[in-house]
Here is the input.
Amino acid sequence: MKPAARVPTAGLGLALALTLSSCAYYNAMWTAERFAKDARRLEAHGRESEARTQWARAAAKAESVMVHHPHSRWADDALVLRAEGLAHAGTCAQAAAPIARALATVSDVSLRERAGLAAAECALLSGNAGDADRALADALTSNDAGRRSRAEFLAGAGAAGRFDYDAALEHFARSREPRALPARARALLAVGRPAEAAAALDTIALGRFDATEWTELLDGLSAVGGEGADAASAALDRLLARARVPFADQARLLVADGDRRLAREDFDGAVARYRQAAAAAPVGAAGVARVRELRVMAVRATGRGDLGPVVLELTRIARPEGGTMVGGGGGGVEAQRLLDFLGRVVTPATSPGGAFRVAELARDSLGAPRLAGQLFLDLAATDSGSLFAPKALVAALTLLPERHDSIAAVLDGRYAASPYTRVLRGDASPAYAALEDSLARELGVYLARAASITGARPSALRTGPRGPWLDEPPLIRGVPAAGRARERPNEPGRRVPTDRPPQERPTVPPASL
Here is the structure.
């Protein structure tokens, strides 16, 4: 019998080691690519936070491949994937080194294009649009449609960042990225093309719904042109008819549209929207919409008596029997805030200065012009000898235009010698500045001297706004149209902005809202 052949154990061991190493390398790279694939899928569904987590995991796994297999044929792939992962995860400081290394050493065209996209992403995040343009040069002419589309989107973002909206629109139009169409809509709004932006919104409505994105786009559309608010309302109606919008998001979008209508003093339209929001809101979450509707009632008030039903309903929402807020979903909190504020308005003041301040709050903070006008008139009638009386009448002039002639007659008759009446008529009044300072001290706020000792101009007859506001930032951005100070150079009833440094200005104590 022949002896058995000897097995070359050393060679088998080496082969086995290489096989295991190759398997481990392959598995690690496969895992890194899987994390990246998951990240792209999450991005496509708008789950940005989760996508960043997956990109970070892809970058970490790619780094492991680079460390343990630095000379493998997939080393360049791992390097570029690490650069991409760190860039998409938002950790551009860590991504800088692998991006620079990839652009300097990688020769494969597709990998260089991917590295350029990562470089552009980080350049845009840091505000370096010029660097982004240079990094995108290869990808913008790529044979790969996906990379070319991504490059067009990033180039458009860079152009928009430079306010070159014409170039941005061209880039966005050539991109198929999910974010390209909303970005194009924003660029159209920036150049004042609301009709095209509204058409873009109709297309966006056919895709994935993003509540934050839609809130931003509708706000932007409403701010463009004289018909912007109507266009935003119509776009919202088309969205709700075409897209599957969660009920809670429907309610929020409808409330926001009601706020825009209220800003335009379209009170009936605002109430209709708030009622739609209440009907759309999930069970127990309609309180905010109901409180906003009550706020409209307060804004439309013509006297303290009109606020009684509003106060009663707000009390029911904020302090129901049994201790459970009727409003739910923040309605009770908002109801209490508005209730506390209205309490300051409905409570009669004990001094002329206090009465004047309450009227200012009704006008500037609540945005109720007719109520404020009546409160100013009540002050002038109750304390006709007060220094505040002629100033209150001047403030009432613009709030109650239908009573302009009768108010002006009282000023000309009873207060003809008042510095306020004289300045209103265009006459110089040396006493005006001193009188303003006296009133400011009683109010507890600082009013800039609107005139020198030699006289004043009619544009100096201003009484606010001083705050505090019901909302920070104001819920009703257009409240100036409803009674707050408007940007008109010669309107009585506004405060002259002071040039005293902020740290030297006494401020009004904040409202207990």
The two ends are 104 Å apart (CA to CA). Residues 272-347 form one domain.
